[in-house]
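To: structure subgroup
Subject: Chain for Friday's discussion

All,

I'm putting the inputs and outputs inline so they're searchable in the archive.
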Amino acid sequence: MSPSSPRRLSLQQIVEGQRRAAFVGREVELGLFRGNFMLPPEDPRHRFVFHVRGNAGVGKTSLVREWRQAAGEFGALVASADESADSVPDVLGAIAAQFAEQGHPLKALDRLLATHRRALHEAAGRLAADNEAAAGVPSPGALAAAQAGLLAAGAIPVVGALAGGIDPAVVARGAGGLRAVFGGRARQLEEARLLAEPVQVLTPVFVAELDRVADAVPWIALFLDTYERTAPQLDRWLADLLTPGRYGELPANLVLTLAGQRRLDPAHWGDRGRLVADVPLGPFTEEEARQLLNGRGVVAEPAVREVLRLSGGLPVLVSTLAANPGAAGEANATAVERFLAGESDPARRAAALACALPRRFDEDLVAVAVPQDGPHDVPGLYDWLLELPFVAEPYSGRSRYHAVVRAPMLRLQRTGSPRRWKAAHDRLAEAFAARRDAAAEGVDPERLWAEQPWRRAALDVLYHRLCARPRTALPEALRAGIELLAQRPSRARHWARTLVDAGEDADDAVLREWGRDLLAAITDHGPRPTAALGLLLTRAELTDRDRAAALVARAWDRFRAGELDAALSDHGRAVAVDPRSERAHQGRAVILRSLGRHEEALADLDRAEEIAPAWAWAVRERGETYRRMGRLEEALTVLDRAHALDPSDAVPLGSRGLVRHALGRHEEALDDFDRAVALWPEYAWALVRRSRVRTVLGDPVGALADLDRAEELNPGRPGTEGERGEVYRATGRYEEAVACYGRALALDPEYAWAHGSRALALEALGRLPEARADLDRALELDPEYAWARAQRERLGAAGVPSAGVPSPGVPPVGVPLPGVAPAE
């Protein structure tokens, strides 16, 4: 080669260049590390330790390689070590060797390390000679005995193949031999101490050497990868190394990087947090994954989307699938091997796979997923699982695997043995069904979906049944969704997410599509279930009973939104689909009643009671209908019957309290409202009505307390402010009353009742023109408002004196009251 020719690259350099060219993403993490070298050590923002952490396969080692390259670009003297250097002398030896290659040998440390290795070998040889009759080179067994003695004395670390694999009898012989070496055979006392306390002897020399070379380079950058494996041996040493005065003063231009799976142990690092930059590493973003795929030639959108779906952004999976987008099984096996690389026990490995099946697990569920009387009986399994780096929320009682770890484990099991996959999910479904049934004890069946323990267990039952048999279990899952959307629509997102999860984990396209579409419908329309119910009605293969239930649930949602015509139409369709749906008849009766069509409402209630004679809800609606018709005595009789049918239902008590109040039986009314609120503390309607009764009984403080609580439960309701005005008017606080009515009218300008009541407060203040104007406005809004008409006639024309202010009280029966009726 000509002297002027450029230096030929080595094979390793070419491979490394290709690897670096293929590196994608992690721009934020790279920028953070690079930026640290632009800050002087004195800057408070500068960090002396970087800790990058994350699950296996997330790309920590690749990032550390890039960081190492970046440090070199800033002129740093660089060295690294991984789990192959699993003791302090090994780490120091690796650093010294790499520094020497870069032209900065640590000569004093090298001499001491050479002495340590020679003394260790000689001590081992002498101990072996003592334990073996034959002279010559120590046999492997003799050397193991000698090393065991050194282990017992603390001269070498208890790690690697030596830990836990030596007969205790051999250890005892070796320890005795080592004591003999220390008693008189070591050539120098310093050498004996080097064998007994290598960390204490080597570390000060290492620190002094670092301080020397630090004057010759801009930075020193040390990297320790796979730290989750070496931390037991190195954690305390590194923490002590950073402690002022322990081993000497470290140079300020030193940057240490640790890369492992777990957080740093707070016992060693808790008071050193200001030195450390914690860098949690997650999966690739979609943009990063696409960048890698594009670099590997995977550009067809269907193939890209499939890789994104299968990989979850986990770099090891993205990379494997990029090489062969169809090799999902190979990618799964590769990923699982990475996650369980540190565990050689096949029973534990099988158990870890099985425990990926439940979305969350506790000790009881582990026993179900991995039968303890089976071939994989593993003592202490649950405690072992909690220590795995990919288990999130350990010790919470509902631990879970990290999603990017769990997904390939599930796919490996599903494709490896479909029979075992189904059997395991069946077992888990039965376990959650038992929890669901236990949580139902003492709970109103109409409110089960509102109870978190029951709801959580019920959704897990659905998940495991869907995973085992997606098509067979789908109708049951959709039926459950209708019930949830009717009872607790605010929790429907969890149900839709369960379908999505099961579709992904069972790899069922139909189920996955259902879940995604339902989730989108729920997300796009907020708390209203109308869109999701519409999706079920147009696409699902429902029975007539299920279709009627979905129509009734949607009708109630539309009724609450004030869409009366649409609600009436849905109830009518439900009756047509299933004429024996008592809920459809009862719901239609409520809407007809709100429209003033009382006789039609009663006819529907007749049909509902004919279908379900003992159903208390139909009876209570009849009582409420009679109340609104002014048939108070009949209402009282029917509401008594509704309460007898279901004493736990607060609504009949609320209606009956209002009837008794209208009949002038205020003490009995107060008792009914008290019992209703005791049964249902969030019953805001009853609180507002009880405030009126308390006002009449001379308890304005209690009345205002009720209204305060109602406002907390349902803020911004005009009826609550209107009733507050009534309390103030009844106690002669007319200015405050006028202000409350004003706030109520600001919330609802067409609130005729508030105009009428404010007129009386204005009259008491002598503001007659304003009072007449309010009554005129009330009659304009509601021409049938007889009470307001009577008050307007009493006040007479403008300029005509009034006959006086009537005594505070309540409008007569039939006058609209603020708020929402109890059955609605």
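Points worth raising on Friday:
Residues 1-5, 132-186, 799-824 have pLDDT under 50 and may be disordered.
The radius of gyration is 39 Å.

D.
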